[in-house]
């Protein structure tokens, strides 16, 4: 076992190598487009990482995300990495860095002197860093925010290696999500080793559940299809199906179970890793918003809904704070590429071969077809203005050119408690949903359902400076890249979402007359439905309108 001196030395060497790589900027590095002078850019990162962060953050918010130059995302990432490495070195005995961090001239990673002494006293537990050391939270949160906000272009492995090294160097915790959970989460008072042996750690989700509805128009179910059968169904039937017995080999369903709180605690560094969480019943509701919080806090406040205990969190600048549990609101980790943020989780699944089948294009007259047609026409008009002799490229047949541009599957993760809902909406992509833990009720309407029955929303004005609406379309991947990033009133295209509140209809069926008066004709719209359970696939064409209610839901799509 490493002694404390060697452990600290190895971590300092690792962070020093990272600093050297970040601060030695080559002429062809994409970050050079931020600055005309590489020497000044390197000096900015080395001496004033907070100023570099502010500069990058300002430019991240000026444009829609799809229009932000990669150099600004890289600058935000590199400044975050530098700041995190300085904090690591300061806490592990690099006195030169610590002196710089505590000086008044370089306040980027300044620590209160009293807190620094307390951290040093708590730093060592045998041969490990103390798991309650507050600086661990701050460093991880700085790095995770870079991953979540920018994707960390070119630095994904660097950040993952830093976090993995810190986790390996940290002492064991006595229980899953120890820093975030109260006594009611403890399975017993036995030592961790004995609890683990007895399998007494509680599951990630509580045992309460939502009663399964009676299905009247069920989605057809089939056993594992061959690749050819799957492709034939997509092209010739173009209808939803549920596929059984196709992912039983996933480690997430067996030896690395995603139902285990202990496993998730390990993979999220005791719950310290940050995740984006939607707060509110539905993204169509007033007051809905999104927060970036530690995974352990998400489990405590929204999955298990524990009360009466302060939990550790970080402020915007990475400083450690304590917060009371939130009010009884729904929290939903929705449509987030969690497996890219935490690569160890990616090893727990395998991409189905079905994802590589060539799908048909959207059918004429469907919302996705019309939206793509409008996009092509707009591009054609712009090109014609620039070149009047150019021939039109607008096509009206069911081509699939745009869909084929995306060669790799897009993988997203959803995690939510019972009664998590998604409003009625359609997606721009063909998708396959795999239920890993729990169950999810899903209802699907044909993309040919008349607008007079389905009531699509249109352009809606939101206040971009409002926190509750700033992330208004975050759960809609197709629209997110379109919004302006500036503050003030903004028009958001919400046409992929219905005005009909199906959850309210289902919870209050006795008020049928009220619903009929609000949305006349909707009750006559035809649909199919299913309850997707652990280990099952659901294929849905991209233009179906769907909604769902979860019973402790953890799925990948």
Q: Which residues form runs of ≥5 with pLDDT under 50?
A: 1-7, 95-125, 183-189, 194-199, 465-486
Reported for the largest beta sheet, the result is: 11 strands, mixed
Strand tally is: 17
Quote the beta fraction.
Answer: 15-25%
What would you report as the Rg, rounded to the nearest angstrom?
A: 25 Å
Shape: globular
Give the helix tally. Answer: 21
Q: What structural category do the secondary elements indicate?
A: alpha+beta
What gap, in angstroms, lies between the N and C termini? 41 Å
Oligomeric composition of the shown chains = single chain
In round numbers, the mean pLDDT is 77
- Share of helix, binned: 25-40%
Q: Can you walk through the features of this model?
A:
Keywords: Signal. Residues 309-328, 383-407, 466-492 are annotated as: Disordered. Residues 1-16 form the signal peptide. Residues 314-324 have a biased composition (Polar residues). The structure is a single chain. By secondary structure, this protein is α+β, with helices and mostly antiparallel strands. Among the domains are: 4-168, no CATH class; 175-202 and 259-328, no CATH class; 367-402, no CATH class. The protein has 21 helices and 17 strands. The protein has helices at residues 4-23, 38-47, 49-60, 70-91, 95-102, 113-122, 134-150, 156-168, 192-198, 227-236, 261-267, 295-303, 338-341, 343-346, 367-386, 401-404, 451-454, 467-470, 477-480, 502-507, 512-518; strands at 124-125, 128-129, 221-223, 241-244, 274-279, 289-294, 311-314, 320-323, 331-336, 413-416, 421-426, 431-445, 459-463, 489-493, 527-533, 536-540, 545-556. The strands form four sheets. Strands 3, 4, 5, 6, 9, 10, 11, 12, 15, 16 and 17 form an eleven-stranded mixed β-sheet that branches. A two-stranded antiparallel ribbon has the order 1-2. It has a two-stranded antiparallel sheet with strand order 7-8. α2 crosses α3, α4 (70-91) packs across α5 (95-102) and α7 runs antiparallel to α8. The two termini are 41 Å apart.
């Amino acid at each position: 076992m490493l002694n404390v001196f060697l452990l600290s030395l190895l971590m300092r060497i690792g962070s020093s190598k990272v600093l050297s790589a970040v601060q030695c900027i080559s002429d062809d590095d994409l970050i050079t487009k931020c600055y005309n002078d590489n020497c000044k850019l390197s000096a900015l990162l080395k001496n004033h990482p907070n100023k570099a962060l502010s500069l990058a953050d300002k430019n991240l918010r000026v444009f829609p995300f799809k229009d932000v130059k990669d150099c600004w995302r890289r600058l935000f990432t590199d400044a975050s990495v530098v700041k995190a490495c300085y904090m690591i070195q300061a806490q592990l005995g690099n006195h030169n860095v610590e002196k710089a961090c505590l000086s008044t001239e370089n306040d980027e990673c300044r620590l209160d002197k009293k807190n620094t002494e307390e951290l040093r006293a708590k730093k060592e537990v045998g041969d490990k860093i103390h798991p309650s050391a507050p600086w661990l939270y701050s460093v991880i949160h700085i790095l995770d925010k870079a991953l979540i906000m920018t994707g960390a272009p070119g630095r994904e492995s660097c950040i993952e290696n830093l976090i993995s090294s810190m986790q390996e160097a940290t002492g064991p915790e006595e229980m899953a999500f120890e820093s975030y959970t109260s006594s009611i989460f403890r399975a017993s008072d036995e030592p961790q080793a004995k609890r683990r042996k007895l399998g007494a750690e509680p599951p990630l989700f509580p045992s309460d559940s939502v009663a399964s509805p009676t299905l009247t128009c069920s989605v057809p179910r089939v056993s594992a299809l061959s690749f050819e059968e799957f492709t034939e169904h997509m092209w010739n039937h173009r209808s939803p199906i549920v596929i059984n017995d196709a992912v039983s080999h996933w480690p997430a369903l067996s030896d690395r179970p995603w139902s285990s709180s202990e496993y998730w605690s390990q993979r999220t560094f005791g719950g310290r890793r940050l995740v984006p969480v939607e707060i509110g019943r539905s993204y169509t509701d007033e007051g809905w918003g999104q927060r970036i919080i530690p995974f352990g806090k998400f489990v405590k406040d929204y999955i298990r809904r524990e009360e009466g205990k302060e939990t550790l969190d970080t402020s915007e600048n990475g400083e450690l704070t304590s917060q009371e549990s939130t009010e009884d609101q729904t929290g939903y980790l929705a449509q987030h590429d969690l497996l890219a943020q935490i690569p160890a989780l990616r090893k727990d699944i395998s991409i189905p071969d079905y994802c590589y089948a060539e799908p048909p294009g959207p059918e004429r007259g469907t919302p996705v077809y019309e939206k793509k047609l409008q996009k092509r026409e707009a591009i054609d008009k712009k090109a014609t203005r620039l070149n009047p002799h150019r021939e039109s490229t607008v096509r009206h047949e069911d081509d699939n050119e745009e869909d084929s541009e995306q060669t790799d599957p897009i993988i997203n993760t959803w995690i939510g408690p019972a009664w998590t809902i998604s409003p009625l909406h359609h997606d721009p992509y063909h998708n396959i949903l795999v239920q890993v833990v729990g169950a999810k009720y899903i209802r699907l309407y044909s993309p040919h359902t008349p607008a007079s029955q389905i009531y699509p929303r249109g352009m809606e004005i939101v206040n971009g400076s409002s926190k509750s609406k700033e992330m208004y379309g975050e759960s809609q991947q197709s629209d997110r890249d379109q919004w302006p990033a500036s503050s003030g009133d903004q028009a958001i295209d919400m046409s992929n979402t219905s005005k009909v509140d199906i959850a309210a209809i289902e919870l209050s069926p006795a008020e049928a007359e009220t619903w009929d008066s609000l949305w006349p004709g909707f009750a006559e719209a035809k649909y199919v439905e299913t309850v997707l359970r652990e280990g099952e696939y659901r294929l849905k064409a991209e233009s179906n309108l769907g909604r769902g209610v979860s019973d402790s839901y953890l799925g990948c799509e």
